[in-house]
Amino acid sequence: MQNTISQQGRYFAFDAVVIGSGIAGLCYLLEMVKLKPNATFALITKGKLHQSNTHYAQGGIAAANAPSDIKDHISDTLSAGDGLCKLDAVSAILEKGPDAIQYLLKQGVLFDRDANKHLLCGKEAGHSDRRIFHVGDKTGAAIVDALLKELSTKQNISIFEDHTAINLITQIEPHQPGASHEAVGVYILEESTGLIHVFSANVIVLATGGAGKVYRYTTNPNVATGDGVAMAYRAGARVGGLEFYQFHPTLLYHPSKHNFLISEALRGEGAYLRLPETGERFMQRYSDNMELATRDVVARAIFCEMETRGMEYVHLDITHKSKAFLQKRFPMIFDTLLSLGLDLSRDKVPVVPAAHYMGGGILSDVNGKTDIKRLYAIGETAFTGLHGANRLASNSLLEGLVMSRNASNASLVFIDSKPDLYKPIKAWDSTTVVDSRRASQINEHWRGLRGEMSCYAGMVRTEAGLHDQLKLVLTRKEIIEECYWKYTITRDLIELRNIVLVAELIVRSALNRRESRGGHYREDYLVKLEDSEHSILRGEAQ
Ligand code: FAD
Ligand code: SIN
């Protein structure tokens, strides 16, 4: 006997609803509150406030270290992006780098300084100069803590932790050719009650971060399931660049410590990559820049060595630096490794490449404007064209910060004006839902999909493998869609539905790109096309 379950919740109305509590969501709100102190805001986040990619950022935030460095920062970004960066986005964002650092200093972020109190800059791969501002190796946590402290003083922001956005509510002006498509609200699952609420708003901001959980090995926390991309695509927005999922070269390889990144800043301070058996610095066979070649090159070199030699990992070696230096420069990594029995000053660290950053996303300009009126996308979930085919290290915190401040100004125009609703917004309808799906069946799809994506649509791709993967993804998608409409909605089910859609979009984009460029490597199309363009997919409003 199956019981019908009602998940229908309440109705909330705000001037703006922001989904995501990483750097992008938090900075947007802090700016907006300054501009509109009497407006009402909701901050929705599916875990606790600090659960975001931002919190785990280690290396730091890239910004020109002097006015004269802006042109070099731009040129390094363009060369990492391998011919696909949008120059106007690159200039608009990177020129605001120094201003972004001043903004964070004002928010109370204590960037590292030398004995003379000058700000210290680190170096990372692909950068021709030291321009990574950092707080030890916990830059992201320091930024989030400072922004949250500031946010806690604001009365007009209502915070909803453990709430997961499910779907955007949009409307299209009836019977009007070329009518505008507009976002008017969002359905939100409250985890503790299982109720699904309607949040209506004049402005909706997607600051939902990346999708590392699409792959088996990732540096990302569990919240990174590409929800923003999936929601926007389902609402009819365009997405782009999704074949360029970036793999970080050095995730710790350890049986019990998962998702632990060993920052690129170690290589910036001179760490070597070595083969475990012979100790060879194998990067000499791949790039003149050795360990400081761009991330796509280093990650692929490691993958290639592991595949051809049947190894499970390679070694990162910084034992030639003093213990005192390492403890001061990388305190969190040093202590974490020590707790696992590895002394960074004496032991080589086993590392593997892992999915790290979603290079594509929801098509938007540098102000976060998307195809859908009143809908803004900012930070990692957005695709501005800054990163091209491969993101330059530490450019993403900067992009999140600059875009969110731009977006607050750009969305001001809608904050006070309610959309004219052509039909009232419907409450969540769960009249056909039955509560009979086993959680283990959802988990099995998660495991299967992530393994398949790593194998067929990971760091090295072929036409045949991508076609196989498309079939697998579409089969899973059909089953998962059926579950979504028939059974009680849970956060796991929402995330699974989203990762399977994002996986499909990655595979379709990878199939469309018959060349090797940046983070997208096709064994069957090794050369670069002369007239390469951005890959754009348009969603179908559902
Ligand atoms: P996030 O910080 O990922 O925030 C997304 C938020 O959205 C989260 O709060 C999440 O819970 C919420 N969310 C998602 N879906 C939903 C939903 N459906 N409903 C409600 N809430 C939702 N970049 C750098 O520039 N420098 C670095 O040193 C650096 N180091 C990194 C180290 C690690 C380990 C990782 C994983 C990434 C690193 N990056 C770094 C990348 C960078 O951290 C991210 O690109 C950036 O922080 C993204 O910020 P964001 O605000 O767009 O998203
Ligand atoms: C790192 O510290 O290696 C991550 C930097 C980044 O992803 O930009």
CATH superfamily of the largest domain: FAD/NAD(P)-binding domain
What number of structural domains do the residues give? 3
The fraction of residues assigned to DSSP E strands is 15-25%
Low-confidence stretches: none
Number of alpha- plus pi-helical segments = 15
The coarse silhouette is globular
The helix content is: 25-40%
Q: Judging by the overall fold, what is the CATH architecture of the largest domain?
A: 3-Layer(bba) Sandwich
How much is the average pLDDT? 95
Number of strands: 18
Structural class assignment: alpha/beta
Biggest β-sheet, characterized? 7 strands, mixed
The Rg value, from CA coordinates, equals 23 Å
CATH topology group of the largest domain: FAD/NAD(P)-binding domain
CATH structural class of the largest domain: Alpha Beta
Distinct bound molecules = flavin-adenine dinucleotide, succinic acid
Cα end-to-end separation:
32 Å
Short summary:
This protein is α/β, with parallel strands linked by helices and 542 residues long. It contains 15 helices and 18 strands. The mean pLDDT is 95.
Structural write-up:
The chain is α/β, with parallel strands linked by helices and 542 residues long. Helices cover 35% and strands 18% of the residues. The chain has helices spanning 23-35, 53-56, 70-80, 87-94, 97-106, 139-151, 227-234, 265-268, 295-309, 323-329, 331-339, 395-415, 439-456, 463-486, 491-512, and strands at residues 8-19, 41-44, 61-62, 121-122, 132-133, 157-160, 163-172, 181-190, 196-206, 238-240, 245-252, 272-274, 314-317, 349-358, 361-363, 375-377, 382-383, 536-538. Strands 1, 2, 6, 7, 8, 9 and 16 form a 7-stranded mixed β-sheet that branches. A 4-stranded mixed β-sheet has the order 17-15-10-18, covered by helices on one side. It has a 4-stranded antiparallel β-sheet with strand order 11-14-13-12, with helices on one face. Strand 1 (8-19), helix 1 (23-35) and strand 2 (41-44) form a beta-alpha-beta unit. Helix 1 (23-35) runs parallel beside helix 6, helix 1 runs parallel beside helix 12 and helix 13 runs parallel beside helix 15 (491-512). The longest helix has 24 residues, at 463-486. The radius of gyration is 23 Å and the shape is globular. The mean pLDDT is 95. The structure holds flavin-adenine dinucleotide and succinic acid (SIN). Succinic acid is lined by residues 58-59, 263-265, 393-394, 396.
